[in-house]
Every structure is written in structure tokens, then in C-alpha cells.
Specification:
- The chain has 342 residues and is of the alpha/beta class.
- It is built from 10 helices and 16 strands.
- It folds into 2 domains: 186 residues, Medium-chain alcohol dehydrogenases, catalytic domain (Quinone Oxidoreductase, Chain A, domain 1), CATH 3.90.180.10; 141 residues, 3-Layer(aba) Sandwich (Rossmann fold), CATH 3.40.50.720.
- The longest helix is centred in the middle third of the chain and has 14 residues.
- The N and C termini lie close together (10 Å).
- α3 packs across α4 and α3 packs across α9.
- 29% of the residues lie in helices and 27% in strands.
Length: 342
């Protein structure tokens, strides 16, 4: 089958960084096992995790490594333990960082982390949503304990990096599901307008000191802060404005130690969100991501959430995937870039 993969970890401007390959079909001969679905990939999306995994490093793979953690497709076969999906079902999901990625014609994935594709979206439009939706949903509701039923209506969330993939859907989920007041950050006129169009109530510039901008907008403290980029630069400002008993949640790591004692006298919490934790470590709530994606799908079909896809490349091949990686690495993406059709 066709796939795009790598043997060497190289800068994306080098042709060998991502190659068009022919690789064996997954589960060849015996079909999918256990809870696995065999999915025919129709569209994929690119996230910062793809570029970080591909980034230059010393190892050389003897078997090609296939990346990719956002897909919309059709189930071709289901393992003997599957009870949720059957062949012909249209699905979308992010998958697992510890298994081969989805940049291939066929892909194996545990059905417990798979959702039903929104009926109102094309495969390309749907492929933009899984990883970012899971990340934003888990960050808000699981990590920072925002109420899903609207009982925190009107409380404030600050989303640092509102125009990127996660920010684009986090604004919508915070506004439409949790009914929060949403402050997003953006540094360009076009990204500011994007955030406002997604539902942000206020937009400030993360390239300028945030505490002063927040005070000027009438917000002295913030109960929920979601950091989606550059934790090193933004931590001091977030620690200053986080409310007593509030939360800071980051999806990005830091290059230096974090001064957690800055949160001590506020009894504030700092938490991480990585949507790959559940697929990697398993546990009794493995199906939580299935439930989450189904709810996102329902909200899309009712018009409460919209796709965050802004760029579509076709077909799915190494040249277009290198182009998509380059777009993400530039750091100026608004929304998501997707690739459609092999």
C-alpha cells in the first residue's frame, strides 16, 4: 500500500525527510486483532507533534517510520473484540503516538479512541478536528475541571495562542459547551479576526505583556488559563494573573524549570494536557476519547462547532506532506492544514 514515511530525521526542505513508499498492508493475512479497526484513510491533518517527531536527530530507521495523528476514513474490517464499529462506518480519530501513524492508505487503530465522523463534514473537513478537539476538551473539562453543563457560565478562560489548531477549537468548546467568557491571544490582524469569528469575547496580543492588557480590559484575575505555545515566555505573566484556586494548563513543555512556588499562596494548580496519555497507558476509561469525539461530532452536526480546516492540499503524497510540515513549522498557521485523498 502507499504510505509516506522516513528513514532519516531531517529538515523538511530535504527530500528524504518524507518519502513516498510502498509498505505492507497492516494486519496482512490475519486481519485486525482485538479492538483494532482497519481504516481506509481518506484525509489526514498535520499537527506540531508531526514536525517535532520528524525534526532532525541522530537515529536512522531500518524500517520506515510512518507519522500522522489526525485522520478521517472508512472502516474496512474490525477485530473480534470490536463492538462499536463495523465495515463501512465513517470515522475520525487521532490515534496513538506509540503505534504507526496514519500517513498511509490503510491504518490500524483501537476502536475505543475512534469517533463517528460528522455527517455534515467532508473527510478533509473532519480530519482537521480529532487531535485538537481531544486536547482542548480534556484540558478544559478533565484537567481544569470546568463544568460541561454550563454551571460555570460567565467565568473567564484565557487561551494563549487562540488562532492555531487547538486554540481554534478550544475557543468554540469553551464558548458553546462550557459557556465561558473567552479571552484569546493573537498577534496579527488576521489571527485576531479569526479568534473573534470563532467566538472569542476579547482578544489580546501575546507578544505584549498580558497582565497589563487584561487589567485594561477589566480582568484582574483569570480562573482558567490554557497555554498552547511558548510556556517559557508566558509562564510569569500567567502566574501573575491566575486567580486564587484557579488553574493553568499547558499542552507544551518548558525548556527550563517552572517556578511552581509562584502559585503557592493562591493555591492555584498547574497541570499538563497530552491527548496521547490515554491511548499510551490505557486503563478502564479508554473509551472516553470515543465518547468525546462522538460528542464533538454531534455538536458539529448541530452547528455548534465548525471545522478548523483552512488549507487543503491534494493528493496525499510526500511532496504535499513536506509542504504541510513546512507550513506548521513556520508558526503562522491559522486553523489547520489537511491533505485529501491518495
Amino acid at each position: 500500500m502507499k504510505a509516506i514515511g522516513l528513514y532519516k530525521y531531517l529538515p523538511v526542505d530535504q527530500e528524504e525527510s518524507l518519502l513516498d513508499l510502498e509498505v505492507p498492508r497492516p494486519a496482512e493475512g490475519g486481519g485486525p486483532q482485538g479492538y483494532d479497526l482497519l481504516v481506509r484513510v481518506k484525509a489526514i491533518s498535520v499537527n506540531p507533534v508531526d514536525t517535532k517527531v520528524r525534526a532532525p536527530k541522530a537515529p536512522v530507521e531500518t524500517v520506515p517510520r510512518v507519522l500522522g495523528w489526525d485522520v478521517a476514513g472508512v472502516v474496512e474490517a474490525a477485530g473480534p473484540d470490536c463492538s462499536i464499529f463495523r465495515p463501512g462506518d465513517e470515522v475520525f480519530y487521532a490515534g496513538s503516538i506509540v503505534r504507526p501513524g496514519c500517513n498511509s492508505e490503510l491504518h490500524l487503530v483501537d476502536e475505543r479512541i475512534v469517533g463517528r465522523k460528522p455527517k455534515t463534514l467532508s473527510f478533509a473537513e473532519a480530519a482537521a478536528l480529532p487531535l485538537t478537539s481531544i486536547t482542548a476538551w480534556e484540558a478544559l473539562f478533565d484537567r481544569m475541571h470546568v463544568a460541561r453543563n454550563g454551571s460555570d457560565r460567565g467565568k473567564v478562560v484565557l487561551i494563549v495562542g487562540g488562532a492555531g489548531g487547538v486554540g481554534s477549537i478550544a475557543i468554540q468548546i469553551a464558548k458553546k459547551v462550557a459557556q465561558l467568557t473567552v479571552i484569546a491571544t493573537a498577534s496579527r490582524p488576521e489571527s485576531r479576526e479569526w479568534c473573534l469569528a470563532r467566538g472569542a469575547d476579547v482578544v489580546i496580543d501575546h507578544r505584549q505583556p498580558m497582565p497589563a492588557q487584561l487589567r485594561a480590559a477589566g480582568f484582574s484575575t483569570i480562573p482558567y488559563i490554557l497555554c498552547l505555545n511558548d510556556l517559557d515566555s508566558h509562564y510569569a505573566g500567567m502566574a501573575e494573573v491566575v486567580a486564587p484556586f484557579g488553574f493553568i494548563c499547558s499542552i507544551v513543555g518548558a525548556s527550563k524549570p517552572i517556578a511552581l512556588d509562584a502559585l503557592w499562596d493562591k493555591s492555584a494548580g498547574f497541570v499538563w494536557e497530552l491527548m496521547f496519555t490515554r491511548p499510551k497507558y490505557g486503563g478502564p476509561d479508554m473509551s472516553a476519547q470515543h465518547d468525546l469525539l462522538n460528542e464533538v461530532s454531534r455538536l458539529v452536526d448541530t452547528g455548534d462547532l465548525v471545522t478548523t480546516a483552512t488549507e487543503t492540499l491534494s493528493p496525499i503524497n510526500a511532496a504535499n506532506l513536506r509542504k504541510a510540515h513546512h507550513m506548521v513549522e513556520e508558526g503562522h498557521m491559522i486553523g489547520k492544514v489537511v491533505l485529501d485523498g491518495f
